[in-house]
Write a structure and sequence with these properties.
Could methylate the ribose at the nucleotide 34 wobble position in tRNA. With 170 residues, the protein is of the alpha/beta class. The chain has 5 helices and 7 strands.
Length: 170
């Protein structure tokens, strides 16, 4: 079982850098669907991801159809959108025979509407107050979702850090 965060045409280097950092810390595979709104050499992208780029497994896809064709039959794909009916916390992510993919849309427009309509049963949302904001920050949204996935999976291969040396598990 592998978890994957997929960014559809991300525009802001800081968001992508922060998500890459989260992926490095959670052993999550990052997929970037082009076109990107920045160069991967962008100084803001590097600053947000700091020195974690070499610790993140990143796959680039030329477009959405190419990404979709890379999925295997047993893979589970979820689309994250504020327009979905089902909450991300209601879904189950514990089948050890599946890889889980979570696709997040472009910061300004989200995922393409026809794609969303064709995959409505795979859409999940993060509850929010729409009266106060248009949308949650992309990097925060990715972290919220991946940590719920990992919580359900028992935080596999993640270490627990203890405040004092004597408290470390042997």
């Amino acid at each position: 079982m592998t978890n994957h965060i997929v960014l559809f045409e991300p525009l802001m280097p800081a968001n992508t850098g922060n998500i890459a950092r989260t992926c490095a810390g959670t052993n999550t595979h990052l997929h970037l669907i082009e076109p990107l709104g920045f160069s991967t050499d962008d100084k803001h992208l590097k600053r947000a991801g700091l020195d974690y780029w070499d610790k993140v497994e990143i796959t680039y896809h030329k477009n959405l159809p190419e990404f979709m064709s890379s999925l295997k039959e047993n893979d589970e794909l979820f689309l994250i959108s504020k327009f979905a009916r089902c909450s991300y916390a209601e879904a189950s992510y514990v089948d050890s025979k599946k890889d889980y993919y979570f696709i997040f849309g472009k910061e300004t427009t989200g995922l393409p509407e026809p794609y969303m309509r064709a995959n409505e049963e795979k859409c999940l949302r993060i509850p929010q107050n729409d009266d106060n904001i248009r949308a949650l920050n992309l990097s925060n949204s990715a972290a919220i979702v991946i940590y719920e996935v990992l919580r359900q999976q028992g935080f596999p291969q993640l270490e627990t850090t203890h405040l004092y040396e004597n408290d470390k598990l042997k």
